[in-house]
Amino acid sequence: MTTGDASLSTLCGVGPTRLKALKELGITTKIDLLEYFPRRYQLETAERPVAELVTDLIQNVRGEITAVDYIAGASRSRFEATLRDESGSLALVWFNGGYLKRVIHPGQQLRVKGKVRFFRGLPQMTNPKWSIITDETPAIEKSVFKPIYPASSRISSDTIAQLIHDHLSDLLELVDEWFEDELLQKYNLLPRKQAYRLIHVPGSHREAAQARRRLVFDELMLLQLGLVSSRQLRDGRLSAPVLRIDKTLDERIRSRFPFEMTRAQLQAAYQIAKDLQQRQPMNRLLQGDVGSGKTVVALYAMLMAVANRLQVAMLAPTEVLAEQHYLNFSRMLEGSNVRIGRFTGRSKRTEKDSIRRLATGQIHIAVGTQALIQQDIEFANLGLVVIDEQHKLGVHQRSVLQNKGYAPHYLVMTATPIPRTLALSYFADFDVTTIDELPPGRQPITTRFVRRHQASSVYQFVRQQISAGRQAYVVVPQIEDNEEDTASLLKKFDELKSRDLTGLRMEMLHGRISPDDRDRIMQDFRAGNVDVLLATTVIEVGIDVPNATVIVIESAERFGLSQLHQLRGRVGRGEHPSYCFLVSDAVNEEAIARLTAMTEMSNGFEIAEADLKLRGPGQFFGTRQHGLPELKLTDISQEIELLTIARKEAAAVLESDPGLQKPVHKHLREALIERFGDSIPLARVG
Question: Does the global pTM surpass 0.70?
């Protein structure tokens, strides 16, 4: 698809006001307009007699108004009319339609359009569209299959439909074919240009489905081509350092851990060690439930790299998590020759010496946030990159180190288990290792969904736990109040301090607190000097305080299932029974179903699958942050068959034409580079 003359302002019927309304919907170019797809379709029938009206269809009827009535009400008034043709009478009702008293009268000929329901055996339309007609007004003789677009108060679905319809021929000139006829015939796919036309003006549900199938295939192929090309480049052209390991080194590494590794942890560590002994760069996703011991497995790989005289970079999404890793590693490696540096960008002055020592190889493990991959930071001999919570960092940041000239091994960890469909799509360039068991001694967590009026009893229970020597978290979704009826950190802190948790030692933790204060608060909490930690989601991952046994999540409906599971994982880390309370006054059926599901499920993989089905991949994974093209039509959770086909065909296309240099792939290559930018190898080939 070409972007030639992309401005919407050149289209007839798009003035400044409409331009602004379209922009609010994310439509700023002609391509955006063409790819603003209908949400659904509805069949509008030709005019039919009253006696032939049926339910659940948009229908047109014409006839004479024989009676009108206006009923005033304290909360809602209504205007009623009766329309009659030769076959019968149709009741019409407009709520809050007082203005109609002045324009609709008995004796007028009207055409009305709407859905019909039967009330006491008689047909009725509620809030129908209407127009005054004459005997000369032509009848609507043809049924129409009408697209319904996501709209706003500034611009209606009908206006969007008309705009697209008026300019569709010109918009289709922007569409280029991506694939050879042989591939289209193999999978019974429409030509690309025809698919764009039929998704906007289909003649039936079948045609709309055919159009959607082709365009979903294109989205999935684009995604797979980007990821598979990255993998092929890694396997075929990049060369990473080969690491050695023997029985002695294995025993030395494991002796550093204050516990025996589980079967699943050892299996994962040895699988990673096998990768590190290969010349091609490792690209492995290490996934496991909350508390399964992923960090220990990662540290095994990191110490293997250090033993081979290589440096390690460990990237975390937040300063709190980076600090947690730094402290844990420092504690486990105390007394060893391994030197650890911390890089969070918090203090340029204190990190200046660390940056110098990293560049000269004196620091072996560098732990930090995105600050670790800034331009002024260099490594002497980088061999392994460990990324915690990949979906919070993104593909583009992962490619920065390669652009600096490094070809290290990559290990990506996530405590948000990736459902199979997402693993096949967003992680097509990864090998996947799963830790499928929890270490012995992990306590089950009792989870309860509590209405807000019951919250006092929850905090009474928190008091009891603290009296028994335990600690607690309270999590809220935002720092300050806004217009929404949602718990805020500042308000909740004052409320608990003055009422439910009076006399307890409480602290707040959120992203606006200075790094030094964050460190002090977390150290105090770990040391048991704070009873209750009120926090935003900065504690979502990586916080490990075994003495904390209760977590209260306020306005829990604001979080997805996987995020709730992550937060719940902050407790249950010690020897004592643990509890999670989900406080919410949600009335939305989906939100209630989500919170109820949390009380019934404890397995992170089951929760991730349920979360994907409830929220879709965009919210589950944050594709924009991830650096991958946004999927406008595709519901990943429902497209496993087409996704599998796309993955196979993407590999076949790149095998026959690795750089997409053949003329037949010209437009596909352009689209791929346009969507992925320079984060894929194709942008640097040819």
Answer: no
